[in-house]
Amino acid sequence: MVVDEECGHGTFGGRAVKWRNHMLMSGSIAVLCGFSPLAVAYCAGASALPDQLETIGPIRIIPHRTITHELGLWLAGIALGAWFPFLEHLPPLLAATLSGMGFRSWMLFLPGVLHLAGDALTPGGVRVFGRKLALGLFRTGEPVEYVVAFVFAVAAGIDIYFIVPDVLDRVSMIKAKFFGSFQ
Ligand SMILES: [Zn+2]
């Protein structure tokens, strides 16, 4: 039986299971990078973006692991967001809230890079400036993938344990910033 490496589980439910590992890995890496809770939630929540952009509902519009899995494009997005902080041009309250919660324009493209970091470990690999990069450590859905995701989650858990007091500090600082003037 020939099994499509990525869609090996066959169903949308199966893909959701596979995406859970992307979510765990991306969220964990964001935690380890010391990002704010909002940025971590975004990195985890949008971690399947490169796969999701390939389809509209059940219809595939872009061949699998082609343009949406080109690392250069996601890096270009990050560079663009760092160079031109377009989120600052949102309505002032929204822009201030996002920036107060530690979210930056370049972070919009970060889930793509984190997703590709996970896919690069599989035989299907990703594209890096047109060339295929596939480390082939495990196939999508194999037990090793769960182990890798779990290791990242444990590392992030340990990290959170040590940074929670710092985060609480930051939350009270943000609260004071927003509500201080009303007291
Ligand atoms: Zn993918």
Question: Topology, pairings included?
Answer:
Layout: H1 12-32, H2 37-45, H3 49-52, E1 55-56, E2 59-60, H4 71-83, H5 92-100, H6 110-119, E3 126-128, E4 131-133, H7 143-179
Antiparallel strand pairs: 1-2, 3-4
Helix pairs in contact: 1-2, 1-6, 1-7, 4-6
This protein binds zinc ion.
Short description:
The protein is mainly alpha-helical.
Description:
The chain is mainly α. The protein has one domain. It is 56% helix and 5% strand. The chain contains seven helices and four strands, in the order αααββαααββα. The strands form two sheets. It has a two-stranded antiparallel ribbon with strand order 1-2. A two-stranded antiparallel sheet has the order 3-4. A hairpin with a 2-residue loop joins β1 (55-56) and β2 (59-60). α1 (12-32) packs across α7 (143-179). It is globular.
* Total number of helices: 7
Terminus-to-terminus distance: 67 Å
> Count the strands?
4
In N-to-C order, the SSE pattern is: HHHEEHHHEEH
Backbone CA Rg: 18 Å
Question: What fraction of residues sit in β-strands?
Answer: 5-15%
What oligomeric state best describes the polypeptide chains here?
Answer: single chain
Secondary structure: helix percent:
55-70%
Low-confidence stretches: 1-11
What would you call the shape?
A: globular
Largest sheet: 2 strands, antiparallel
Write out the strand line-up for the largest beta sheet, numbering strands in chain order. 1-2
Average predicted confidence as pLDDT:
87
- Compute the number of structural domains: 1
